[in-house]
Specification:
The complex is a heterodimer. Chain A has seven helices and ten strands. By secondary structure, chain A is of the alpha/beta class. Classes of the chains: A alpha/beta, B alpha+beta. The structure holds adenosine-5'-triphosphate (ATP) and magnesium ion (MG).
Chain lengths: 229, 384
């Protein structure tokens, strides 16, 4: 199977005067269509790693290759385009644009590249909003939705451009266990239907055990990397 | 266009702030429009009262007190000399003293061909009673002289010409009002033939010329001098009114200074508010960039904001400025109801003020736009 992602000895430290190394040479590959959970204690470096994988941050050392392209050699504009077309983000804090409605937020990744929204695309956006169960609040501003609704909107938005790779940082962080269950079965369904690759950070071991593969990070190193069935 | 949509929404979702900036620009533009129209109106009326009823370029004999020949071919040479020449008018001038039953007054006898002279002096409009004089037996006088002497239409006066020691009897057929006392008191106006015969002058005192672009008088006079030979002297209004012209220039410069300072303060205002907006929207910009908005698009959001603010501000400002102008002409009036200063509404000037405001707003948006482009996604995502 094709490699979506190849991480090669990723290292990252913070601080200019006193350097704290957060990631110590992390390497792993991710195959197309897989659903991988990343677990680890708070402060272990999961979000830092995720931001580097998503090209939002650059590693101090090592390479990130996405679909065989080494992101080190790409300029900011090319990276922006890569993110727009290939990667869908679901952030730890949900990050909707408060000036826009749920539907408009979901359409945003498409609008960055296209002036007009054809009917088929609009239908797809409505399908996504139905999928996350928010049709009744689709015209609400982001500020007029509950935390869980905002999180689900962010999930729908991540799917908008049919990205090959979805990076999710605790997508169910602020949801109750029933809704968490629903969201994961939704992500799973998308994973199966569109063969989308998922990389999901979670605290929840129960959730992690239901995925294809579980990587545990500890003190900036890979502690455990198991394939589940 | 993506950046435009986002700009529009950002502005719409922060209505109070948007309104305040738009008002700031609008006030700046309205001051410009109003002051500009006022100063231009002032200058126009000054120029008009200086040369509105007089010759722009005058051709006389180069010898003092000599006449020039009344020459039809020279007349048509002058007429065809330059397309900016509106009219050439022949005049004969001389002095005399006018005697009625009770008074004797010195007068300036002036003879015109009214067909041409009308363009320069507007006799048709200034005639307030009677008719224009025809031939050696008729003349018209100014309102002030008629009032002082108590003459009325149909009265005859004697006019003594010192040069020839002749006395002529002439009928008062018209009364004019130039709204200038010195003219109203001294001019004794006849038609050209009549004045020639009363003054016993076969020649002309001058050819008077009116032109379209009054400020071209010096250049045109210079080229006339070079072309019509040494027998003639050419004078023009600008060299005779240096003081007025430098006054006007000073006025223009101070008006320009006011306008520049107004624009500078508008630019600074917009720029600082937009810079704050970039900070306010940094979370949004971060998420947009994470989703693949590139730096150029991110900076365009703020350029569009500046542009939109400029457009709205300019439109409202022009309307406000015109409103101010109208109120000024309605409320600042002379006792007779005419405005103190007739404002000059110049569409080209207003369009220019508006475009400068839009341009200035774009310039003001430039720094915020750069900040927006430079904003680092990871800072925002991490600190969320
Ligand atoms: N900008 C920064 N400057 C300095 N240190 C930082 C910065 N960002 C993160 N860190 C440190 O890097 C380490 C990893 O942080 P990171 O956010 O990746 O953890 P995490 O695994 O996502 O934790 P959590 O589960 O709580 O979200 C932490 O010790 C944190 O203090
Ligand atoms: Mg984290």
């Amino acid at each position: 199977m094709a490699k979506v992602l190849v991480l090669d000895k990723i290292a990252k430290s913070y601080g200019k005067i006193v350097k704290t190394q957060v990631l110590h040479g992390i390497s792993f590959d991710v195959e197309e269509g897989s659903f991988t959970a990343i677990i680890g204690q708070s402060g272990s470096g999961k979000s830092t790693l995720m931001n580097i994988i998503g090209t939002l941050d650059r590693p101090d050392e090592g390479n990130v290759s996405i679909y065989g392209k080494n992101t080190k050699d790409m300029d900011k504009k090319a990276l922006a385009e890569l993110r727009n077309e290939t990667i869908g983000f679901i952030f730890q804090h949900h990050y909707l644009l408060p000036e826009f409605t749920a539907l408009e937020n979901i359409l945003m990744p498409y609008r960055i590249k296209h002036t007009k929204v054809p009917q088929a695309v609009m239908d797809y956006a409505l399908e996504l909003i139905e999928l996350v169960g928010l049709t009744h609040v689709k015209d609400n501003l982001a500020t007029e939705m509950s935390g869980g609704q905002q999180q689900r909107t962010a999930i729908a938005r991540a799917l908008m451009n049919k990205p090959k790779l979805i990076l999710a940082d605790e997508p169910t962080g602020s949801l109750d266990s029933d809704t968490t269950e629903q969201v994961y079965s939704l992500l799973r369904k998308i994973n199966k239907t569109y063969n989308t690759t998922f990389l999901v950070i979670t605290h929840d071991k129960v959730v992690a055990q239901q995925t294809d593969r579980m990587i545990e990070i500890k003190d900036g190193k890979i502690e455990l990397d198991v394939t589940l069935d | 266009m993506f950046s435009f949509r986002v700009a529009l929404r950002f502005l719409a979702s922060n209505k109070l702030q948007t309104l305040l900036i738009v008002l700031g620009i609008a006030v700046g533009v309205s001051v410009q429009v109003f002051i500009g129209s006022l100063i231009q109106g002032l200058q126009n009326s000054l120029i008009d009262s200086t040369i509105g009823s007089s010759s722009h370029i005058t051709v006389t004999s180069s010898e003092r007190n000599e006449t020039v020949a009344d020459d039809a071919s020279f007349f048509s040479t002058l007429q065809g000399f330059d397309e900016r020449i509106v009219v050439v008018s022949k005049t004969v001038d001389g002095s005399g003293s006018m005697t009625t039953d009770t008074y004797t007054d010195p007068v300036v006898i002036r003879g015109f061909e009214f067909a041409q002279a009308n363009t320069i002096y507007g006799f048709d409009d200034k005639l307030i009673d009677g008719a224009l004089p025809v031939g050696a037996g008729e003349m018209m006088l100014g309102k002030d002289l008629v009032d002082e002497t108590g003459l009325s239409l149909g009265d005859t006066v004697s006019v003594f010409i010192p040069e020839t020691s002749e006395t002529h009897t002439v009928l008062l057929v018209g009364v004019f009002d130039f709204r200038v006392t010195s003219i109203n008191k001294s001019w004794f106006v006849m038609d050209l033939g009549g004045a020639k015969s009363v003054l016993s002058s076969p020649g002309l005192s001058s050819y008077e010329i009116q032109i379209t672009d009054v400020f071209a008088s010096d250049a045109l006079a210079a080229s006339l001098r070079n072309n019509i030979g040494n027998d003639f002297a050419v004078t023009e209004w600008q060299s005779a009114n240096q003081e007025l012209l430098s006054g006007l220039e000073g006025q223009s410069i101070s008006s320009l200074m006011i306008q520049i300072f107004v624009m500078v303060s508008v630019v600074l205002g917009i720029s600082s508010v937009l810079a704050i907006t970039v900070l306010q929207k940094s979370k949004q910009l971060g998420i947009l960039k994470a989703m693949g908005t590139n730096d150029a698009q991110a900076s365009k959001i703020f350029l569009f904001e500046g542009f939109l603010l400029g457009i709205f501000g300019a439109v409202i400002g022009v309307l406000l400025g015109l409103l101010l102008a109208v109120m000024f002409t309605v409320f600042a009036v002379n006792p007779d109801g005419t405005p103190v200063v007739a404002l000059y509404i110049n569409p080209a000037f207003i369009a220019m003020s508006a475009s400068i405001a839009v341009f200035a707003s774009l310039v003001a948006a430039f720094l915020p736009a750069r900040r927006s482009a430079k904003l680092d996604v990871i800072e925002v995502i991490r600190n969320g």
